[in-house]
Amino acid sequence: MRSLTRSNVFWPLIALVALLAVNVAARPGFLGVRMQDGHLYGSIIDILRNTSPILLVAIGMTLVIATRGIDLSVGALVAIAGAVACTQIAASPSPGSAATVLIAIGTAVLVCLVLGVWNGFLVSVVGIQPIIATLILMTAGRGIAMLVTGGQITTVNSPLYKSIGAGYLLTLPVSAIIAGVVLAATALLTRRTALGTLVESVGINPEASRLAGVRARSIIWTVYVFSALCAAIAGILISSNVTAADANNNGLWIELDAILAVVIGGTSLMGGKFSLTGTLIGAFIIETLRITVISLGIAPEVNLVFKAVVVILVCLLQSPVVQRRFRARRRAVAQEHGEAVEVVA
Amino acid sequence: MATRTTPPGPGPGIPAPVHDAQAIVRMTGIVVEFPGVRALQGVDLVLRAGEVHALLGENGAGKSTLIRALTGVRPPDAGQIEVDGRPVAIHGPAQAQALGISTVYQEVNLCPNLSVAENIMLGREPRRAGGIDWRRMRRQAAEVLGRLNVDIDPASPLSAHSIAVQQLVAIARAMQVDARVLILDEPTSSLDADEVAELFRVMRGLREDGVAILFVTHFLEQVDEIADRITVLRNGARVGERRTSEMTRLELVSMMIGRELAVLEDIAQDAESREEAAARSGDGSAPTPFVRAIGLGRRGSIEPFDLDVYPGEVVGLAGLLGSGRSELARLLFGADHADSGTLEVDGAPVRLRTPRAAIGERIAFSSENRKAEGLVEDLTVRENIVLGLQAARGWARRVPQRKQDELTAHYIEALGIRPANPEALVRNLSGGNQQKVLLARWLATAPRLLILDEPTRGIDVGAKAEIQKLVHDLALEGMSVVFISAELDEVLRLSNRIAVLRDRRKVAEIVNGPDVTARDVLELIASGGQE
Question: Residue B482 — φ and ψ, nearest 5°?
């Protein structure tokens, strides 16, 4: 029990359960899932599907934040990925063919990778602060997306493309499966190789890591490219779900949701130890929050106030002052119970 | 707070203060405690009008803490501060300034994008009708600059001037409030010779005006040149206060380094291993040095130097803080780029652009700055030990879990790391154990040259002896070691050869032996290698 309450994801998990409980209280059938048209159907399934883009962007953001960085450009990259994919499909004589869709997705991913290389270059080689370096693309990116779509909302009519964001596979939303696969692959990549430890090491102490022989620069560069890749996939999911590329609105503010998901999940903006499980829970919390406001019938503008309250709470809990209080309290409690405190003088 | 525990009369061992008409500031029995550490244990300091008083001591001796006590940044836990013979409690820099005590810190704490005048007058701008009286502000700034004989345009932006001039502007700012006591915390550390001369000219002018100057520095030549009086601190205690004219350089160095000369000469010498090592070392018996530096140097950091390190040899670097010990080590490791000279490994020239390249040549470097440049504190003991090896293998080839556990268990056992818990966060270990973790990281990469910068600083005596023994054993096994320590007896005990550094220059190199004494090395440091 003790190890559970001490776990980093304990409080986020409690928050998620509490949010779900509020929904169940308001609408007892909230957790119900039934089969309809050959796939699962229910609020929970909606949450699964709608969380996917945030989760994808947040996975990339987790690694960036672990290196003490931040990537503000992901929302713009989401728009660019959607714009590139949709304009290609719309221009194709056979929008429904697998080849068209694959080429469109491939191009969108490639474009975003190039932009990720740009971000990484600015941060790791030129040494610009991440918040400024990625702000460049955050601002310019939507302009690029606008150029690609010619300033129009580009709608596509491709059942295959639509199935990525809105379809079902083995009764589950395809988008949720994609996000799950990316999450699992990232977990494997970071935890089964040494990448996770090296990312944390660079985030905690870049200079010590450099002197220990870690390729700090390449690692930082790589996480920005990876973040762009995640944003590209998210962009494809979003544009596919609405079968349109809207340069102005696709992925609007998703970078803030993603940062919030990462921070709620227990990864500190100071860099270092990261938790993909925490990010998963954080992403669910944000989407459930939104659903809660809607299902309780509160005006959507309150959603933002809700989010604000959550942000404030999380920031307070993470602040050095509160953390010190917590530690002092825990130590005091431990000493009361006559336990050895794990600090060696 | 500051005077709470002041004893009613002079404490034991403290002579009753003789009334000194010149004394502006008199600090008596100053004690400052941090959790678990007594940073200052009853230090006395007297600052007199029209005198430059040098405050000397190695790192951690308590110089900064004493300055903080005087400026109210960290009021003392016990002891008394008198200004003009009246006891005062100083609770903040503003209060210190009101008493006429101004400080110029090592890093220039000014705003580069503001003008010189704005910087000098910041926070005390002359006002007129609710706004700032710019003309008067420039005039007042010009007055104080004129008093210092600094000829620059008060309206020019600060960033247009060199660091040295910015330093002078900082002094002008400090003097603008009619300071009678000026504290200069290592003002010369980033200045070249001409700039230092300019600074000294200004300091002499202030001295003639009757200002008391407290001057913190590491450069002994500068002390000789400018200081009237010297106070030396060591381990939070005052070793002594002397007039500069009454003191030889040798006395000064031995006061700073810490052993009385007689005691130093008595240190038992590990004669047997010394001779053994001498046979192994560079008397022509060893074929080629593992590492050879030829004219290696870096401007502003260390003058070009030659150095050979043979296999199985311990080369000690002796010198005071700021003498270029660490800078030399960083060049050998590629942590900084050399801008002159060449480095040969096994007789072949190499260019070490990154630490990674040095590690590829099997050179390891443990920085003196354990926390900032060594440990990754929020990772575990295991992760820290494996980090060097893992970095060399690249991220894709993770060191297998079993190998990690074996390595960690091996080094915890071999070096006696406590707690013996591979998953403990390094943050929670004591200094000595952290140092052992760092050593383990490098030993795990099987280096041929191990550069240790102050590996025993700030750790307890037991761990110190263990680390010395380890260095000795590693050299016997054929590893080359470059050993840097502020403690001369340590360097003497371990080294086969000793390179002596002073003022960022290698000034001498001696083969260590039973007849080499601490006194010899001290004399070399003091004389700068010139007989």
Answer: -105, 120
